[in-house]
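Quarterly update from the structural biology core.
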Amino acid sequence: MVFVRNQHMRIAELARQVGLSTATLRYYEDEGLLRPAARTDAGYRVYGDAALERVGFIQRAKALGLTLREIQQLTDQPADAGHERARLRHAIVHKLADTDRRIAELVTLRGELRDQLTRLGAVPTCGHVGDCTCWLPTREEVIQMASNVTSEDGCTCCGCTCTSDDEPCTCCGCPDPNCC
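Predicted structure, tokenized:
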């Protein structure tokens, strides 16, 4: 993003340049993340180039998954460059570990959802959802059903007759490219 340098921007101009709303910038100010360089006699916020850099840093940090609280902790205590770099590195290491944990949880969830979908397509149910355990399979049932489904020909989501293992199903609009 290219910023137009201006020592006396009002909040609307800053918002336009960084692609955020004035309400977001006011919120950043309320949270102590952003400070106007000055205020006019009428009380308008006036920002300088430092605000462009600060908002850019906030946006990059948010894109990396840091919360506003984490960003505030990083920016509240100015220190030498080495110490600040170590603090930022520490925050990113923790964010990376959290992301890896969440990915593992999502992979597990995806497997459980696929298992449940397989069960719902293969086992008749005896009642309404929540009335009996037949809606939720045991782990052993899931493993058996998954092996049964992978050995069958054709798509299990819509009844099409695609049988190619090399090409994804294109006849039914199935969102799962590996459904056949």
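Residues 150-154 have pLDDT under 50 and may be disordered.
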